[in-house]
Design a protein that fits this description.
Blueprint (H helix, E strand, L loop, with lengths): L8 E2 L7 H8 L21 E7 L7 E8 L7 E4 L8 E6 L2 E6 H10 L8 E2 L1 H4 L5 H7 L3 H7 L2 E7 L5 H24 L6 H4 L10 H16 L3 H4 L5 H10 L9 H7 L4 E5 L2 E4 H21 L12 H13 L10 H7 L10 H4 L20 H16 L59 E6 L3 E18 L8 H16 L13 H10 L8 H19 L1 H8 L10 H15 L7 H13 L8 H11 L10 H4 L4 H16 L5 E5 L4 E4 L8 E5 L6 E5 L5 E9 L6 H7 L6 E5 L1
Length: about 725
């Protein structure tokens, strides 16, 4: 919802309605003319305005009628892009020529052709954008307006050269999928369909389930009618779909409320329409197709690799359409953080546009456009602290410090900046249950006070303690080089700063490799699965071996011609070859085995030091318990799905620290933290926070929050026991 004031000019061909002009287009909007039907809206009656065409007039001549919301006639609601173009068209409302955006004018020219559309709600015309008081009571009604409307019209914009092709192609896909699924169910061949092709479970992660999804997808493809089956993977059609979903409509933050809350919705592009239900039916198949074409059966020539268009559809649409589940229960702070890449004309709408997705009564925040952006963002965090009782560490000045809103406290996230956290934030799920791998502060409840300092400043006084200090760090993971180069640089920089070899023990008695591996895998979804952790350990050792072997490592950065290699298929193929080589000679495990051998020797493990015993020792150190040698994992006969799982699991772990800093603390705990920290910054444990916080001391012992960290030895309440023993001093930590 944009907040540009609407202005109007007299149309010399029509009669002037002075009271309407004063009411609708004047700042303040408080004038009431009892003789005129278009009075200011009465909040106590929840009144709304609805647009309708004047009988016998042109398509651009409209009237606005006021109704109590509960007594309003059936109406459609328009979902569209305001746009920032200075170009304006004009429509005639109540005899006045009103400038509107070109996109709104185009939408109004098309929507009346949709069946039974007599009344229409469009925010730019139905809300006085220059009246803050009116916006404050109309915006909370929008959740009800879109939920009550007979149909939400999702206007993507005017037709383009290939948009008609895209709309028809999506319609055909939906029809083919529905027909195929119905046929399979009639013949009792619908196994796996319900689990893999529903809107709430379209993204398949488990390797075994991926194989099932592939079989189910192929059975559906086999049912496609012949005329469409020959065009189902046509490059031109997929290019048109790609372009359709690159339209700016899909980036608007308001569509999350407008579309999610719609009972019935129609996608409109030019004169073409598509039921939203058809799009939702198509989407799960597209996401599974990625796996079928690129993952499960990469050699299957029947599924061309040009289906990368599907990734675009999944990226733009899954987040939006899956947000249907937000109607159950979700937290405002979570939604605001995960929608930073959506666009909003007014930064406050990054919060206000999401309120319709929060159950009424589950937040104290109400739209108030008289507040500053900083005040609105502060209120989101304070509301979360009060209602959930935990501090979620998504704030901090470590990232984009120069781009943050002026005066925004360091402990409050800037929702105007698209965040790319180096370490993944910990969250509670939408039902309020803990959904994290750690609880650094144990069960201690959050205890805090907030002191506001006009105009926008705010102090957070929260209970906790300072437990450590940054002693050395490497920012190698901030650059764009491959993971193997980054790891090698990290180890070299840490060795130089601490004057230790990576094969030595830390002061905690833990070997470097163990500390790094556990720091990487602290938040891994597979943390409690020994076999999965074994695969991660193998992947880690392969990565470490390649990072230490310059000759072999060259393949990862360049090809035979010396050109940069970025193609994932090439990387994947090479990784499969490496795993095959591990089964026999293990050449790429030699460098880490040498490191581990020194560790085993120093710990008195005996004289027998075969590769199997050394790896088994590492296996035991990282908490992996297998029935046989640790080499059972790399020596098994992996199929395609297992190869992919090994590669993707390793990549997923590495992505968690991409853009982070490798840190060693004064007590020689190792971990990863958000960028922007410095040697000397302190590590804090905040009661009611799941991970440690890195902060910087400023005047009068006040702290600037740099960001969260993940440190081995701090993640599971270990330091809370030491606090009870008197090793640390509990205090009020004051963040500015």
């Amino acid at each position: 919802m944009a907040l540009d004031p609407i202005t109007a000019t007299r149309n010399p061909t029509v009669h002037r309605r002075s009271s309407f002009e004063a009411f609708l287009f004047r700042h303040g909007g408080t004038h009431r003319d009892t003789q005129h039907p278009l009075l200011p809206l009465n909040p106590s009656k929840r009144e709304i305005r609805l647009l309708h065409r004047c009988k016998g007039s042109t398509d651009h001549d409209y009237r606005l009628s006021v109704f109590p919301f509960d007594d309003a006639p059936p109406f459609f609601a328009l979902s569209y892009v305001w746009g920032s173009s200075p170009d304006r068209n004009h429509v005639v409302v109540e005899g006045l020529s009103v400038p509107v955006t070109t996109n709104l004018a185009a939408a109004l020219a098309q929507v009346w052709g949709v069946a039974d559309c007599e009344y229409l709600w469009a925010d730019a015309l139905c809300i006085n954008q220059s009246d803050t008081h009116e916006k404050n009571h109309q915006v909370p009604l929008m959740r009800h307006i879109y939920g009550r409307s007979s149909r939400v019209l999702m206007w993507l914009g005017d037709a383009s050269a290939d948009s008609d092709l895209a709309m028809e192609f999506l319609r055909e896909w939906a029809g083919a999928i529905r027909g195929a699924v119905d046929e399979l169910r009639r013949n009792d061949k619908a196994i796996y369909l319900d689990g893999d092709f529903t809107a709430d479970n379209a993204w398949v992660h488990d390797p075994e389930e991926r194989v099932k999804a592939s079989a189910a997808a192929k059975s559906i493809f086999a049912q496609f009618p012949a005329p469409f089956a020959t065009r189902a993977f046509d490059d031109k059609s997929w290019g048109a779909v790609d372009a359709l979903f690159e339209r700016s409509y899909w980036t608007r933050i308001w569509i999350l409320q407008e579309v999610v809350l719609a009972n019935v919705a129609t996608v409109m592009c030019g004169a073409k329409t598509l039921d939203l239900d058809d799009l939702i039916a198509v989407l799960p198949m597209f996401t599974v197709m990625i796996y079928c074409a690129l993952v499960v059966s990469p050699s299957d020539t029947e599924r061309p690799l040009t289906l990368m268009h599907c990734e675009m559809v999944a990226f733009l649409m899954i987040h939006t359409m899956r947000s249907m589940i937000w109607k159950e229960k979700s937290h405002l702070l979570y939604l605001a953080n995960h929608t930073m890449d959506y666009e909003a004309t007014d930064a406050r709408d990054r919060v206000f546009a999401l309120l319709g997705l929060i159950p009424e009564g589950d937040t104290s925040i109400v739209p108030n456009y008289s507040l500053s952006v900083q005040q609105v963002f502060i209120d989101v965090v304070v509301d979360h602290l009060n209602r959930i009782g935990r501090y979620v560490p998504i704030a901090g000045i470590g990232q984009n410090a120069a781009a943050r809103l002026p005066g925004l406290p360091s402990w409050v996230p800037d929702f105007t900046i698209e965040s790319r956290l180096g370490t993944e934030a910990s969250w509670q799920n939408r039902h309020g249950n803990t959904n994290v791998a750690s609880r650094a502060s144990g069960t201690r409840p959050v205890r805090f006070t907030v002191a506001r300092m006009p105009p926008d400043g705010c102090l957070l006084r929260i209970r906790g303690f300072i437990c450590d200090q940054v002693a050395a760090l490497s920012d190698a993971y901030l650059d764009s080089r491959c993971y193997f180069c980054q790891l090698r640089t990290c180890l070299e920089e840490m060795a130089s700063q601490t004057r230790r070899e990576p094969s030595s023990l830390l002061a905690t008695g833990v070997p470097w490799l163990y500390a790094i591996f556990r720091s990487l895998t602290i938040a891994a979804e597979t943390y409690a699965d020994p076999r999965a952790m074994g695969k991660l350990a193998v992947g880690f050792l392969l990565m470490l071996g390649m990072s230490m072997d310059t000759d072999d490592h060259a393949w990862r950065c360049t090809n035979d011609a010396g050109e940069a290699v970025e193609d994932r298929e090439t990387i994947w193929a090479r990784f499969r070859t490496l795993v095959g080589e591990v089964r026999t000679t293990h050449p790429h495990l030699q460098p880490p085995i040498a490191f581990l051998a020194r560790y085993v020797e120093r710990n008195g493990a005996g004289t027998e030091q075969t590769e199997e015993s050394i790896l088994a020792k590492f296996c035991g150190v990282v908490g992996v318990h297998l029935s046989a040698s640790f080499l059972e994992v790399p020596c098994q006969d992996f199929g395609d799905a297992e190869y992919f799982a090994l590669y993707k699991n390793l990549e997923a772990v590495l992505l968690r620290i991409d853009g982070a800093s490798l840190v060693v603390t004064k007590s020689e705990q190792m971990g990863f933290a958000e960028p922007g920290l410095q040697v000397g910054d302190v590590v804090c444990i905040i009661f009611g926070c799941d991970v440690p916080i890195v902060a910087r001391r400023v005047e009068q012992d006040r702290l600037l929050m740099i960001g969260q960290g993940r440190f081995h030895g701090m993640m599971y309440g270990e330091l809370m026991d030491k606090l009870e023993e008197g090793a640390f001093e509990e205090q009020d930590l004051v963040f500015i």
